[in-house]
Amino acid sequence: MLEPSSDTVQLDADGHRPLEMVGRARQLREIKALLGPGTTAGRALLVSGEPGVGKSMLLGEVGRAASEAGSRVLTAVGVPFETELAYAGLHQLLVPLNDRFEHMAGTHGKVLRGALGYGGDPVPVGREVTDAVTFLLRQVATERPVLTVVDDLARLDRASSAVLGSVARRLWGSRIGLLAASRSGAETFFGRDGLTEYELPPLDRDAAVELLGTRFPGLAASVRDRVLDQAQGNPLALVELPAALSGPQRNALADLPDVLPLSPRVRNLHASRVAGLSAEARRILLLLALDDTGDPGVLRAGSGTPETLTALAAAEWNRLVTVDGTNRRVAFRHPLMRAALVESSTLTERCQAHRALAELGAETPERRAWHLGRATLDPDGRIAALLEEAGQRAARRGDATRAVAALTRAAELSPRPVDRGRRLTRAAFLAADAIGDLRAASELLDRARRADPDSTATPLAAATTALLLLNGGDGDIDMAHRLLVEVIGTGIHGYDAEDDALVEALRILRLVCWSSGRDALWEPFHTALDRVRPTASPLFSAHVEAADPSRTGSVGRRESDRDVTWRWVRQGRQGGHVRRHVDALMHLCSEDFATGRWDEAGTLADEALRICEERQHPFLSWYFEYHRALLAAVHGHVEESRSQADRITHWAVPRGALGAAAFADHARVLAELGAGDYECAYRNAVAISPAGRIASHAPQALAACMDLVEAAVHTRRTAEAEAHVRALREAGVAGLSPRLALLVAGAAALVAPDDGAVGRFEQALAVPGAQHRPFDLARIRLAYGQRLRRMRCVTEARAQLVAATEVFEHLGARPWADRAAGELRATGMSRTGAKHGSVTLTGQEQEIAALAASGLTNKQIGERLHLSPRTVGSHLYQLFPKLGIASRAALRDALASLPPN
């Protein structure tokens, strides 16, 4: 006998693979709630949904949970070849109870034996069987609760289905629950009237991504996006579509078809549903499958006769498609039907369909080019040019996956090697930059070199190779810099500011220079910019401004860009442009930290680190580790902050990323300031920028300017502190942004002598927009209060210290809150907010405290409230002293003692 191979997977009656319990926690809770306590509270529930959506999995999970809770679980599954056997389903359900039939009072036992074929008694009528089954289940339920689980009602025999439908209406007041599942819209004799029905939806995108990552961890990003798009959240489709691809296709090393294929069994299962339709109906369905827009205009590609509408009506009647009553768009009910239709068609039929769709799409050039490309088998320069233009349009609107597919097909149809190489290079760059698929980018770039060896000397090829070095190699800054400078310096692009390839190469070069933190690497960048025409291009101006703001008089991006930034984040979360997604998260993290949105900053940093890992952009992970280190520092987790900063440094220094190392130094400065180690803070601050000089091209020299001055003042380096303030004024740093204006004013106040200190501090507090930088402003108030106390202006000192303390406590900046509270005590005043009766908690603090008191872990609380575990921990760290407690065990009593809100 042959042994089953390790690749063999047991399929259910629909050809479905067993799926993990992914993304169904909410639905599982809702189903259990609808069934009632213990899922056996005398209720019946019908779960419906499309094939493959996960009904069987949920029924199994509910049954398992009920069994573990002590219930008796009876199960039955509809089987196609038993649909004509009366009471076959009932037989499955009651087999475990056969021994009870003999002991049943009255005629109930005889009725059941007759219905199930035990003995020679005639088959009883349905009502008698219903009474007997109800009696039996109630009898069993006196011993322990009973849950009956019936899967695939549409394939259950008519007699069993009718009986169970009647039983479902007689459960009230019993300890019996009935849970059944059926395909949406399937005809059964169960009888839905009066029963609660739960429609199981497809998985959301996050759950679909998780399922793909579990089953196919090495799936290339571009292929994953195609699968997600085609599967539409159907778990079966999410498993079947990648499984039918070849290894190179999964790794994006081989082209994908228009519609992803299926395994033979699943394909035949779905294709059999259209076998009985007319030729016109199958042709219309193939057009709809290849178009994938749902545009009702596709029907015009039919014969133009009433037969077309008749064919569509037949497909709708057979529940293959739906037609929206408002916009008349047509959609397949099941995502795998498209794949089954395409795979069961011939090459000739597909080419004819694509030509018909191309003619129909004359007013939409992108769709027309795509269909012409699929209908053409031989090289064609005209169609290749149309596809290239379509790919560029797709890239501009953010659909990089579509753009790569169009450019790759354009290259395949290109008669000239130079055109083939150029188009493949563009596709490779988009794969690396916008999709985050390094394997596909490397393969496409290699194909471009083979098609046209000269393509390697272009700016776009250099930019792609640099991205592969940074994200897929060892992140060597100097090697990437040499490569980019050499190609840009050839001038083959004519230094034209409208040349997209040059723009991208300069953007990657700017990233390399910024990460390096070295003047020498910036020189070739500025040399190239000086030669670009027109010099007034806003894009290139932004490059220059961001490179060295203290000398260019601008910090580049403005806060008014926040709406655009969030749009990039939302698009990225839906699988959009990965580099823009990461760029946007960098900006938001920076802005959120400055404006006191620390919870959001932590959440976004966690999201960014996940994106950098999943979408193959690891080079910039250090930036989000830096924000984690900053947040740990301000929350008082000094060792955690130091550890994260050390990890950044250990990664950055060997790669020549000294700019990243400067960010790590900034996190150390803040951690040491919080810890009160001003000497160590000063050493780290001057490592970023020497006292008395604003270091050129040092990313954090400006952000850390007040930190350096504060550390210098506390270590009695008065001359160095004053020199640094003079350097800030001479460079006009205060004019660069509202935040820098506040930091410079604060630094000037710190070094002011006592007779001028009040005026300087008041000027700092009056900086426009200062209230939008709560942490910086509170630090200035703290320093102001400390100075006033030493000047014996106690009343005035208290006002500043109270204001500072409130902000620090609100932000969770524990080290500074403690320091401000200590200064307050030194004035003879103490805050009594830790007494239970006077505590005021925010809504989020109350929710976190209540969940922690209930016994949930930080991770579980974070999952409920969509916060990171670290953020939850920070909130609890702040709550304990507020409530006057020292452990989670005391939370319940502390919350109970609070006054009603």
Keywords:
mainly alpha, disordered N terminus, 5-stranded parallel sheet, 901 residues, two-stranded antiparallel sheet, 60% helix, 44 helices, 4% strand
How is this structure best described in words?
By secondary structure, the chain is mainly α. Helix content is 60%, strand content 4%. The chain has 44 helices and 7 strands. The chain has a 5-stranded parallel sheet, sandwiched between helices. A two-stranded antiparallel sheet has the order 6-7. Helix 6 (158-168) links the parallel strand 3 and strand 4. The longest helix has 19 residues, at 417-435. The N and C termini lie far apart (73 Å). The model is unreliable at 1-19, 556-560 and 832-837 (pLDDT under 50).
Topology readout:
Blueprint: H1 25-35, E1 44-49, H2 55-68, E2 72-77, H3 88-94, H4 108-115, H5 126-141, E3 146-151, H6 158-168, E4 176-183, E5 196-199, H7 205-215, H8 221-231, H9 235-243, H10 247-250, H11 264-271, H12 279-291, H13 306-317, E6 321-323, E7 330-332, H14 335-343, H15 347-360, H16 365-375, H17 381-396, H18 400-412, H19 417-435, H20 438-451, H21 459-472, H22 477-488, H23 500-516, H24 519-531, H25 538-547, H26 549-552, H27 562-573, H28 578-594, H29 598-614, H30 621-634, H31 638-655, H32 658-675, H33 678-688, H34 705-714, H35 718-730, H36 738-751, H37 754-765, H38 774-790, H39 794-811, H40 814-826, H41 843-853, H42 858-865, H43 869-883, H44 891-896
Parallel strand pairs: 1-4, 1-5, 2-3, 3-4
Antiparallel strand pairs: 6-7
